[in-house]
Amino acid sequence: MRAAEAVALFCYQAKKWIGSFAAALGGLDTLVFAGGIGENAPVVRARICEGLNFLGIELNESRNAKTAGVISTNAGRVRVRVIRTDEELMIARSVCRILAPGAVNKKD
């Protein structure tokens, strides 16, 4: 029960942030899901995007289920993408930048 509530709250908060940023930016061209949940949880992606049609976000259910690179419909105004990321590498780079500014090779 608590896990379901946590997922519902997470999806609600993500949806709220998407709406806030869309308002601040004057709309969206692309919405990107990345990281562990963004890359591996089609149900969560669908729950987050549910009700955001007014922004032009429309998911293609089969693309979303397969975690395709583009999971939006062709008719949607907003491209919704899933992008693979190496979170551990990004964390390591951030730590290196903080601990030794200028010592990190920017081409890594």
Could you outline the blueprint of secondary structure elements for this entry?
Elements: H1 2-25, E1 30-33, H2 35-40, H3 42-49, H4 61-66, E2 79-82, H5 87-99
Parallel strand pairs: 1-2
Helix pairs in contact: 1-3
How would you portray this structure in words?
A two-stranded parallel ribbon has the order 1-2. The chain is built from 5 helices and 2 strands. It starts with a helix and ends in a 9-residue tail after the last helix. The protein is mainly α and 108 residues long.
Short description:
This protein is mainly alpha-helical and 108 residues long.
> What would you call the shape?
globular
Order of helices and strands: HEHHHEH
The profile of the biggest β sheet is: 2 strands, parallel
**Helix/strand/pairing category:** mainly alpha
List its traits.
5 helices, 2 strands, 108 residues, globular
